[in-house]
Design brief:
By secondary structure, the chain is mainly alpha-helical. The chain is built from 17 helices and no strands. The two termini are 33 Å apart.
Length: 323
């Protein structure tokens, strides 16, 4: 209990700061379309104007269900999406601090690094736009930590933590599905060679099974309520998929809308490029332990292109922030 008290105080402090900032932005007109849609949905659910079918079909479920739950508890003057985003920011700060402290830094250094991560413009931009982005950053952090631990010691708990974090990412934001799919071919860099050599297919299936289960569950629910398997893409993305009519419209439309986003994302990744060579230099003879970092960096542009193919339109910052 005494060990949990400082973490609770830390989370409460960051939550209060984030709640004040996000609420001020929302009340002064700086609200994203995502937050406005969540707010309207939560108010409709509270007033009984939203039927259970629409709530069940909402994808991703984590921001929708969290916002609806908070709408019944939050003060009327505070937008529920802003409050939920602040709660996510407070929890993320606790997770950051705990991971940095466990890495060997003292409490002051861990607090300073946590503040720098939370105050990062990329994180603030994504977190202030709605709870989905903050949840995705939290899921990506948990997945990255589990990936590094899995590469270094290959324990069953780390394997379960990685698979759970990837499934959680898919339930937080449609972009999380693209991130998991972009990371999937690179999981061979995360698991230890001996483990992958025994059963590569088994390693992939073990890591991706919760993600596949969550995706299949969404597909099944969409089929039950809509009576059509094509209801899954409609539940996955907020904008309809572009259909190939044989005239090349799919490729042309995708290139026109997404190639510039991918290029901007690549330029943004270059800003963080010194981190990757520094990690390889610091690893020294333990270079294989830096392979998860290479997988995570390579997953970002792959996820951006997959997001374009899936119809998930996001700005490059939304892809770069979790990485």
């Amino acid at each position: 209990m005494s060990r949990a008290a400082p973490l609770a105080m830390l989370g409460a402090g960051f939550f209060a700061l984030a709640a004040g900032l996000f609420a001020w932005l929302a009340l002064h007109g700086f609200a994203s379309a995502e937050s406005l849609a969540l707010q309207g949905e939560a108010i409709a659910a509270r007033d009984g104007a939203l039927n259970p079918r629409e709530i069940v079909l909402a994808f991703p479920p984590a921001p929708h269900l969290g916002t609806i739950a908070l709408q019944f508890l939050a003060p009327p003057a505070v937008p529920a999406p802003a409050l939920f985003a602040a709660l996510v920011a407070g929890l993320t700060a606790v997770v950051f601090f705990k991971a940095i402290a466990e890495a060997g830094f003292d409490k002051r250094a861990a607090l300073a690094f946590t503040a720098l991560l939370i105050c990062n413009p990329l994180y603030l931009r994504v977190a202030s736009s709605g709870p989905a982005g903050g949840l995705l950053v939290l899921a990506a952090w948990l997945a990255a930590g589990a990936a590094f631990r899995l590469r270094s010691r290959a324990s069953v708990s780390d394997l379960m933590a990685l698979s759970g974090a990837l499934a959680f990412a898919a339930l937080c934001d449609p972009l999380g599905v693209a991130l998991v799919l972009g990371l999937a071919p690179l999981l061979i860099l995360v698991v230890q060679p001996a483990f992958a050599r025994e059963s590569t297919a088994g390693a992939y299936l073990t890591i991706l099974f919760p993600f596949l289960l969550a995706t299949a569950g969404t597909l099944y629910v969409a089929w039950i309520f809509r009576g059509d398997l094509r209801g899954f893409p409609a539940a996955l993305v907020s904008t309809p998929l572009v259909v190939d009519d044989g005239s090349g419209g799919f490729v042309a439309g995708w290139r026109r809308q997404e190639v510039f986003a991918v290029a901007a994302l690549s330029l943004g990744a270059l800003a963080a490029f010194p981190v990757l060579p520094g990690l390889f230099i610091a690893s020294g003879r333990r270079l294989p332990r830096a392979m998860p970092a290479l997988a995570l960096f390579a997953a970002a542009p792959a996820a951006a292109m997959l997001a374009g193919l899936l119809g998930v339109t996001r700005e490059p910052l939304a892809v770069a922030a979790p990485m």
